[in-house]
Description:
The protein has 248 residues and is an all-alpha fold. The protein contains nine helices and no strands.
Amino acid sequence: MRRWLGVAAAWLWAVSAALAGPAPIAPSAPIPAPLTTAFGGPQVPWTIVVLLTLLTLVPALLLSMTPFVRLLIVFHFLRQALGTQTTPTNQTLIGLALILTFFLMQPVGLAIQHQAIVPLEAGRITPLAAVEIGSRPLKTFMLHYVRQKDVALFLELAKEPRPRTPEDLSMRVVLPSYILSELKAGFQIGAVLFLPFLVIDMVVASITTSIGMMQLPPVVISTPLKLLLFVMVDGWNLLVGSLMRSFQ
């Protein structure tokens, strides 16, 4: 723990020193010329600002390029269908979606490591080439699940020519197409998941209305029945298994 605190303190000191600018130099020492950008200003503070801004966007971009979107939408539909407003909690659903996303994306991560990260660490390719090579396995993964209708939409909006092969599509077209396709798939699965629980709600509501039970809301009776049905059929195993097979 003390070691990590020391590393964090050193990092904060380095960042504060970079933001504060160069330290005063003794008159006898030669004063080096400061790093400047194309606009003549200091380069280091703006570089840090840009890097910190990109770090805040990287998690959202990575989660949008993975199955996380579909998994989280389906889990939220399941919670609404069961009638449990806060169980499981948002943290539990997000954690489960992250773990399943890691399980699904591990082969893609290994391919990126072997094709881009290892050659970059060995000095055989440049960082820009590593980014280009590392995006290929991710693009291949996304192309398996995009719809042609979504791709055609963003090709038209981007005013790009029709590619010869799907691999020729740019990330500018593939990424929004993949997000739309995952949203549609998540809502389709959620709608199908809602149907059996909706039938239970309708049956309970019709029975309670027919016998004149107006004091007790139908949801109070239907919620335990839906939970009992979900537990009896081993719902979590069926749902997660179906979701995992949909990405194979």
